[in-house]
Design brief:
By secondary structure, this protein is of the alpha/beta class. About 40% of the residues lie in helices and about 25% in strands. It is built from eleven helices and ten strands.
């Protein structure tokens, strides 16, 4: 479905990504982990079309995404839930969800999708007429994910969904993400610093460090790697 091949991105002469390759199959849960500044958000922005690469390819269903403007990519079924939530603070919860439903699939499936969003996050139904800027951080993250789901995507890209949240709230968010994948069969590409929880949810994981993919594999493979255990899990050698 999504295939990133040998991708490199530069900012002002500095290389943010170098030779990055990543794949997400239909219905697959893929996680990218790594430290701050590793290039994870840049990777997402390149897939979404906000950032243009210096070289490499990004393909969706075998066709180049790089030839498509960023505004067209949501219509293809790609939803990007950005770092820091970025809800429309002066709009209501309901209006935020409606904004997410502007792609063709979102409009055609709106009633069913809204019911699903409310089932996952009942608080969004209760707060439908409340301004998004008055929600708590956890509620705003639920709204951001709901807004992503509103376009009826085939791939949901989640950038640091636990950022700034209390541990209990972050666990709830992770539970809902796992539920979406399991029950809806939706492909998910997750960027996250809570490495153990993120990798445990995923079918396949990648470790990104200083702009390069340094390791990939399943949960058990990555957990057994001493670099992952020391650098990201705070554990000793296996």
């Amino acid at each position: 479905m999504l295939e990133v091949q040998d991708l490199s991105v530069s900012y002002g002469g500095l290389r943010a990504l170098q030779g990055v390759t990543l794949r997400v199959a239909a219905g697959q849960f893929v996680t990218v982990v790594g430290p701050n500044g590793a290039g994870k958000t840049t990777l997402f922005k390149t897939i979404s079309g906000v950032v243009s690469p210096a070289s490499g390819t990004v393909q969706w269903d075998g066709a180049s995404l790089l030839k498509r403007p960023s505004s067209a990519r949501a219509h293809l079924g790609i939803a990007h839930v950005p770092e820091g939530r970025q809800v429309f603070r002066t709009l209501t919860v309901q209006e935020n969800l409606e904004m997410g439903a502007y792609p063709r699939a979102g409009r055609s499936q709106w009633a069913r999708t809204l019911d699903r969003i409310h089932a996952l996050f009942p608080i969004l139904k209760e707060r439908a007429d409340q301004l998004a800027g008055t929600l708590s951080g956890g509620e705003q993250q639920m709204l951001a994910i709901g807004r992503g789901l509103a376009c009826a995507p085939r791939l949901l890209m989640l950038d640091e969904p636990s950022m700034g949240l209390a541990p209990a709230v972050a666990e709830t968010i992770f539970d809902r993400i796992a539920q979406i994948h399991k029950e809806d069969g939706l492909a998910i590409l997750l960027v996250e610093q809570r490495v153990a929880e993120a990798l445990e949810l995923s079918d396949h994981g990648y470790v990104l460090d200083t702009g390069r993919m340094v390791l990939e594999g399943g949960y058990q493979t990555l957990l057994a790697d001493d670099r992952v255990r020391r650098s990201y899990l705070g554990l000793g050698e296996a």
